[in-house]
Amino acid sequence: MNPGTNSWKSTSDSVQALELYGCFVVAYDNNISSELYEETFDLMEELFGLPIETKRRNTSEIPGFGYSGSFSFMPHLEYLGFENGGIFEAAKKFTSLMWPHGHDKFCETIYSYCKLLLELDHTVMKMVGSSYNLEKYMDPLIQSSFYMTRVMKYHSPGENKSDIGILPHRDKSFMAIIGSNEVKGLQIETRDGDWIDFEPSPGKFIVIVGEPFMAWSNGRIYCPLHKVTAIGSKEKYSIGLFSFVRGILQVPEELVDDENPLKFKSFSNLEFLEYCNEKGPKMKGAIQTYCGI
Ligand SMILES: O=C(O)CCC(=O)C(=O)O
Ligand SMILES: [Fe+2]
Predict the structure, then answer these.
(1) What confidence category does residue 53 fall into, taking pLDDT thresholds of 50, 70 and 90?
(2) Which intervals hold domain Fe2OG dioxygenase (predicted)?
(3) Ligand 1 centre and the CA of 49: distance in Å?
(4) By the 8 A CB rule, do 27 and 37 touch?
(5) For the chain, where are the E strands, in sequence order?
(6) What is the Å distance from ligand 2's center to 242 Cα?
Protein backbone atom coordinates (compact mmCIF):
# COMPACT_ATOMS: atom_id res chain seq x y z
CA MET A 1 0.00 0.00 0.00
CA ASN A 2 2.12 2.83 -1.29
CA PRO A 3 1.11 6.45 -0.71
CA GLY A 4 -0.61 7.89 -3.78
CA THR A 5 -1.88 4.58 -5.15
CA ASN A 6 -5.55 3.55 -5.23
CA SER A 7 -5.16 0.91 -2.55
CA TRP A 8 -3.48 3.46 -0.31
CA LYS A 9 -6.36 5.88 -0.90
CA SER A 10 -8.96 3.26 0.01
CA THR A 11 -6.86 2.36 3.06
CA SER A 12 -6.72 5.91 4.31
CA ASP A 13 -10.47 6.38 3.62
CA SER A 14 -11.30 3.22 5.55
CA VAL A 15 -9.08 4.12 8.50
CA GLN A 16 -10.55 7.61 8.52
CA ALA A 17 -14.02 6.02 8.67
CA LEU A 18 -12.87 3.93 11.64
CA GLU A 19 -11.74 7.12 13.38
CA LEU A 20 -14.96 9.00 12.60
CA TYR A 21 -17.60 6.28 12.78
CA GLY A 22 -15.91 3.18 14.18
CA CYS A 23 -17.18 1.23 11.20
CA PHE A 24 -17.19 1.03 7.44
CA VAL A 25 -18.91 -1.03 4.80
CA VAL A 26 -16.91 -3.31 2.51
CA ALA A 27 -18.19 -4.44 -0.89
CA TYR A 28 -16.48 -7.81 -0.99
CA ASP A 29 -18.36 -9.18 -4.03
CA ASN A 30 -15.16 -9.87 -5.94
CA ASN A 31 -14.09 -12.26 -3.24
CA ILE A 32 -17.36 -13.82 -2.16
CA SER A 33 -19.68 -15.14 -4.86
CA SER A 34 -23.40 -14.50 -4.65
CA GLU A 35 -23.84 -18.33 -4.71
CA LEU A 36 -21.74 -18.75 -1.56
CA TYR A 37 -23.55 -15.86 0.07
CA GLU A 38 -26.99 -17.26 -0.72
CA GLU A 39 -26.09 -20.83 0.15
CA THR A 40 -24.73 -19.70 3.50
CA PHE A 41 -27.92 -17.89 4.43
CA ASP A 42 -30.13 -20.75 3.17
CA LEU A 43 -28.20 -23.04 5.49
CA MET A 44 -28.85 -20.66 8.40
CA GLU A 45 -32.55 -21.48 8.13
CA GLU A 46 -31.71 -25.17 8.32
CA LEU A 47 -29.38 -24.64 11.29
CA PHE A 48 -31.84 -22.62 13.36
CA GLY A 49 -34.59 -25.07 12.37
CA LEU A 50 -32.84 -27.82 14.35
CA PRO A 51 -34.50 -28.88 17.62
CA ILE A 52 -33.57 -26.69 20.58
CA GLU A 53 -31.96 -29.67 22.38
CA THR A 54 -29.55 -29.99 19.44
CA LYS A 55 -28.68 -26.28 19.39
CA ARG A 56 -28.11 -26.39 23.15
CA ARG A 57 -25.31 -28.91 22.60
CA ASN A 58 -23.21 -25.95 21.45
CA THR A 59 -21.89 -24.84 24.83
CA SER A 60 -18.94 -22.66 25.75
CA GLU A 61 -17.26 -21.20 28.81
CA ILE A 62 -16.75 -17.89 27.02
CA PRO A 63 -19.54 -15.31 27.36
CA GLY A 64 -21.39 -14.70 24.08
CA PHE A 65 -20.28 -18.03 22.60
CA GLY A 66 -22.41 -21.20 22.80
CA TYR A 67 -26.17 -21.12 22.29
CA SER A 68 -28.66 -18.68 23.68
CA GLY A 69 -31.99 -17.15 22.93
CA SER A 70 -35.39 -16.06 24.25
CA PHE A 71 -33.89 -13.40 26.50
CA SER A 72 -36.63 -11.55 28.38
CA PHE A 73 -35.13 -8.23 27.25
CA MET A 74 -34.41 -9.33 23.63
CA PRO A 75 -37.14 -11.90 22.91
CA HIS A 76 -36.56 -12.10 19.14
CA LEU A 77 -32.86 -13.00 19.25
CA GLU A 78 -31.39 -16.47 19.08
CA TYR A 79 -27.69 -17.12 18.45
CA LEU A 80 -25.04 -19.80 18.06
CA GLY A 81 -21.40 -18.84 18.54
CA PHE A 82 -18.50 -21.18 17.90
CA GLU A 83 -14.76 -20.81 17.75
CA ASN A 84 -12.59 -20.49 14.67
CA GLY A 85 -15.08 -21.20 11.87
CA GLY A 86 -12.35 -20.22 9.39
CA ILE A 87 -10.34 -23.31 10.37
CA PHE A 88 -11.66 -26.42 8.65
CA GLU A 89 -11.34 -28.72 11.69
CA ALA A 90 -13.30 -26.27 13.87
CA ALA A 91 -16.04 -25.89 11.24
CA LYS A 92 -16.22 -29.68 11.08
CA LYS A 93 -16.45 -30.00 14.85
CA PHE A 94 -19.37 -27.55 15.03
CA THR A 95 -21.07 -29.29 12.10
CA SER A 96 -20.76 -32.72 13.75
CA LEU A 97 -22.17 -31.33 16.97
CA MET A 98 -25.26 -30.11 15.13
CA TRP A 99 -25.50 -33.02 12.66
CA PRO A 100 -23.83 -36.11 14.18
CA HIS A 101 -24.28 -37.96 10.87
CA GLY A 102 -22.45 -35.17 9.09
CA HIS A 103 -23.50 -32.36 6.76
CA ASP A 104 -20.66 -31.78 4.30
CA LYS A 105 -22.39 -28.95 2.53
CA PHE A 106 -22.89 -26.99 5.73
CA CYS A 107 -19.32 -27.63 6.84
CA GLU A 108 -17.76 -26.59 3.54
CA THR A 109 -20.02 -23.57 3.11
CA ILE A 110 -19.56 -22.11 6.59
CA TYR A 111 -15.83 -22.79 6.42
CA SER A 112 -15.46 -21.02 3.04
CA TYR A 113 -17.53 -18.10 4.25
CA CYS A 114 -15.61 -17.69 7.52
CA LYS A 115 -12.26 -18.06 5.77
CA LEU A 116 -13.08 -15.10 3.55
CA LEU A 117 -14.10 -13.04 6.55
CA LEU A 118 -10.88 -14.06 8.30
CA GLU A 119 -8.87 -12.77 5.34
CA LEU A 120 -10.87 -9.56 5.45
CA ASP A 121 -10.14 -9.21 9.17
CA HIS A 122 -6.39 -9.52 8.52
CA THR A 123 -6.62 -7.02 5.66
CA VAL A 124 -8.35 -4.45 7.85
CA MET A 125 -5.79 -4.93 10.64
CA LYS A 126 -2.99 -4.43 8.13
CA MET A 127 -4.69 -1.34 6.73
CA VAL A 128 -4.74 0.19 10.19
CA GLY A 129 -1.10 -0.80 10.71
CA SER A 130 -0.02 0.73 7.42
CA SER A 131 -2.02 3.91 7.94
CA TYR A 132 -0.49 4.55 11.39
CA ASN A 133 3.01 3.27 10.53
CA LEU A 134 2.42 0.58 13.13
CA GLU A 135 2.95 -2.39 10.82
CA LYS A 136 5.19 -4.18 13.30
CA TYR A 137 2.34 -4.54 15.81
CA MET A 138 -0.12 -6.12 13.43
CA ASP A 139 1.27 -9.61 12.86
CA PRO A 140 1.65 -10.25 16.60
CA LEU A 141 -1.93 -9.01 17.16
CA ILE A 142 -3.27 -11.22 14.36
CA GLN A 143 -1.28 -14.19 15.59
CA SER A 144 -2.63 -13.91 19.11
CA SER A 145 -6.22 -13.47 17.91
CA PHE A 146 -8.87 -16.10 18.00
CA TYR A 147 -12.22 -15.81 16.34
CA MET A 148 -15.83 -16.48 17.07
CA THR A 149 -18.31 -17.05 14.31
CA ARG A 150 -21.67 -16.03 15.67
CA VAL A 151 -24.79 -16.66 13.65
CA MET A 152 -27.87 -14.80 14.73
CA LYS A 153 -31.53 -15.21 14.00
CA TYR A 154 -34.00 -12.42 14.69
CA HIS A 155 -37.46 -13.89 14.78
CA SER A 156 -40.00 -11.79 12.95
CA PRO A 157 -42.23 -9.62 15.14
CA GLY A 158 -44.97 -9.85 12.43
CA GLU A 159 -46.20 -7.88 9.44
CA ASN A 160 -45.79 -4.08 9.86
CA LYS A 161 -44.38 -4.55 13.35
CA SER A 162 -41.00 -3.86 14.87
CA ASP A 163 -39.37 -4.75 18.17
CA ILE A 164 -35.96 -4.89 19.88
CA GLY A 165 -33.53 -7.33 18.21
CA ILE A 166 -30.36 -6.42 20.12
CA LEU A 167 -30.24 -3.55 22.60
CA PRO A 168 -27.80 -0.71 21.93
CA HIS A 169 -24.30 -1.87 22.87
CA ARG A 170 -20.61 -1.54 22.09
CA ASP A 171 -18.84 -4.73 21.13
CA LYS A 172 -16.49 -6.41 23.57
CA SER A 173 -14.66 -8.13 20.73
CA PHE A 174 -11.60 -6.46 19.22
CA MET A 175 -13.33 -6.18 15.88
CA ALA A 176 -16.39 -7.66 14.18
CA ILE A 177 -17.26 -8.19 10.53
CA ILE A 178 -20.95 -8.75 9.91
CA GLY A 179 -23.05 -9.69 6.91
CA SER A 180 -26.74 -10.46 6.82
CA ASN A 181 -29.54 -11.67 4.61
CA GLU A 182 -31.56 -8.99 2.84
CA VAL A 183 -33.56 -8.05 5.95
CA LYS A 184 -32.52 -4.66 7.37
CA GLY A 185 -32.37 -3.82 11.05
CA LEU A 186 -28.75 -3.14 12.08
CA GLN A 187 -28.19 0.51 12.95
CA ILE A 188 -25.05 2.33 14.02
CA GLU A 189 -25.02 5.51 16.05
CA THR A 190 -22.87 8.38 14.80
CA ARG A 191 -20.95 10.62 17.17
CA ASP A 192 -23.79 13.15 16.76
CA GLY A 193 -26.39 10.70 17.98
CA ASP A 194 -27.99 9.89 14.60
CA TRP A 195 -28.72 6.24 13.82
CA ILE A 196 -27.66 5.08 10.37
CA ASP A 197 -28.87 1.89 8.70
CA PHE A 198 -26.62 -0.82 7.40
CA GLU A 199 -28.22 -1.74 4.07
CA PRO A 200 -27.43 -5.42 3.58
CA SER A 201 -26.81 -6.99 0.19
CA PRO A 202 -24.86 -10.03 -1.03
CA GLY A 203 -21.13 -9.49 -0.67
CA LYS A 204 -21.53 -6.47 1.59
CA PHE A 205 -20.10 -6.51 5.09
CA ILE A 206 -19.80 -4.02 7.89
CA VAL A 207 -16.63 -3.82 9.93
CA ILE A 208 -17.33 -2.69 13.51
CA VAL A 209 -14.68 -1.64 16.03
CA GLY A 210 -15.03 -3.12 19.53
CA GLU A 211 -14.04 -1.41 22.78
CA PRO A 212 -10.69 -3.26 23.06
CA PHE A 213 -9.58 -2.00 19.62
CA MET A 214 -10.59 1.55 20.50
CA ALA A 215 -8.60 1.31 23.76
CA TRP A 216 -5.57 -0.24 22.02
CA SER A 217 -5.59 2.76 19.64
CA ASN A 218 -5.63 5.14 22.65
CA GLY A 219 -9.07 6.33 21.56
CA ARG A 220 -7.95 7.29 18.07
CA ILE A 221 -10.32 4.76 16.53
CA TYR A 222 -13.96 5.14 17.54
CA CYS A 223 -16.16 2.41 18.97
CA PRO A 224 -19.79 2.91 17.96
CA LEU A 225 -22.98 2.09 19.78
CA HIS A 226 -25.15 -0.12 17.59
CA LYS A 227 -28.41 -2.03 17.83
CA VAL A 228 -30.65 -4.32 15.83
CA THR A 229 -34.37 -3.89 15.37
CA ALA A 230 -36.43 -6.89 14.33
CA ILE A 231 -38.74 -5.64 11.60
CA GLY A 232 -41.66 -7.05 9.63
CA SER A 233 -42.63 -10.52 8.55
CA LYS A 234 -39.26 -11.91 7.39
CA GLU A 235 -36.68 -13.48 9.66
CA LYS A 236 -33.35 -11.68 9.77
CA TYR A 237 -30.19 -13.77 9.83
CA SER A 238 -26.75 -12.34 10.33
CA ILE A 239 -23.31 -13.87 10.56
CA GLY A 240 -20.46 -12.16 12.34
CA LEU A 241 -16.80 -12.94 12.67
CA PHE A 242 -15.64 -11.51 16.00
CA SER A 243 -11.95 -11.32 16.83
CA PHE A 244 -10.52 -11.45 20.35
CA VAL A 245 -6.89 -10.94 21.23
CA ARG A 246 -5.26 -13.22 23.81
CA GLY A 247 -2.69 -11.94 26.28
CA ILE A 248 -2.13 -8.36 27.37
CA LEU A 249 -3.03 -5.45 25.14
CA GLN A 250 -1.07 -2.25 25.42
CA VAL A 251 -1.38 1.08 23.61
CA PRO A 252 1.59 1.39 21.21
CA GLU A 253 3.98 4.07 22.43
CA GLU A 254 3.79 5.71 18.99
CA LEU A 255 0.16 6.64 19.73
CA VAL A 256 1.05 8.50 22.93
CA ASP A 257 2.51 12.00 23.06
CA ASP A 258 1.94 15.32 24.84
CA GLU A 259 -1.19 16.04 22.83
CA ASN A 260 -2.46 12.47 23.17
CA PRO A 261 -1.65 11.29 26.69
CA LEU A 262 -2.15 7.63 27.54
CA LYS A 263 -5.88 7.00 28.03
CA PHE A 264 -5.94 3.27 28.81
CA LYS A 265 -3.85 0.98 31.03
CA SER A 266 -2.78 -2.40 29.65
CA PHE A 267 -5.59 -4.91 29.80
CA SER A 268 -6.75 -8.36 28.75
CA ASN A 269 -9.48 -8.63 26.10
CA LEU A 270 -10.70 -11.92 27.61
CA GLU A 271 -10.76 -10.70 31.19
CA PHE A 272 -12.62 -7.63 29.97
CA LEU A 273 -15.21 -9.96 28.43
CA GLU A 274 -15.66 -11.73 31.79
CA TYR A 275 -15.88 -8.39 33.57
CA CYS A 276 -18.68 -7.20 31.25
CA ASN A 277 -20.48 -10.49 31.65
CA GLU A 278 -20.53 -10.08 35.42
CA LYS A 279 -21.60 -6.45 35.28
CA GLY A 280 -24.49 -7.21 32.92
CA PRO A 281 -25.53 -6.04 29.46
CA LYS A 282 -26.42 -2.45 30.36
CA MET A 283 -22.83 -1.20 30.54
CA LYS A 284 -22.23 1.04 27.55
CA GLY A 285 -18.76 2.47 28.15
CA ALA A 286 -17.38 -0.52 30.00
CA ILE A 287 -13.79 -0.23 28.83
CA GLN A 288 -13.51 3.19 30.43
CA THR A 289 -14.39 1.85 33.87
CA TYR A 290 -12.31 -1.28 33.27
CA CYS A 291 -8.98 0.21 32.25
CA GLY A 292 -9.48 3.91 31.46
CA ILE A 293 -7.03 6.39 32.96
O1 LIG B 1 -26.82 -9.06 13.88
C2 LIG B 1 -26.28 -7.98 13.66
O3 LIG B 1 -26.41 -7.38 12.60
C4 LIG B 1 -25.43 -7.31 14.71
C5 LIG B 1 -25.12 -8.18 15.88
C6 LIG B 1 -24.30 -7.51 16.92
O7 LIG B 1 -24.21 -6.31 17.01
C8 LIG B 1 -23.53 -8.33 17.88
O9 LIG B 1 -23.73 -9.56 17.90
O10 LIG B 1 -22.73 -7.77 18.65
FE1 LIG C 1 -22.53 -5.79 18.26
Answers:
(1) very high
(2) 145-247
(3) 20
(4) no
(5) 23-27, 66-69, 77-83, 145-154, 162-169, 175-180, 186-189, 195-197, 204-209, 226-231, 236-245, 248-249, 267-268
(6) 9
- Within 155-279, strands assigned E span 162-169, 175-180, 186-189, 195-197, 204-209, 226-231, 236-245, 248-249, 267-268
Is the reported ipTM for this assembly greater than 0.85? yes
Asked if 133 contacts 209 with a C-beta cutoff of 8 angstroms, the reply is no
Q: Which of 86-90, 137-141, 152-156, 284-288 has the lowest mean pLDDT?
A: 284-288
Question: CB count, 10 Å around CB of 44?
Answer: 22
> Which uninterrupted H or E stretch holds 50?
none
Give the binding-site residues of ligand 1, using a 6 Å CB cut-off: 150, 152, 166, 171, 178, 180, 186, 226, 228, 238, 240
Q: Please report which helix (H) or strand (E) contains residue 88, including its range.
A: helix 88-98
CA 208 to ligand 1: nearest atom: 7
Find all residues with CB under 8 Å of 244, minimum gap 6, and list them: 145, 146, 147, 148, 173, 174, 212, 269, 270, 273
Ligand nearest to the CA of 77: 1
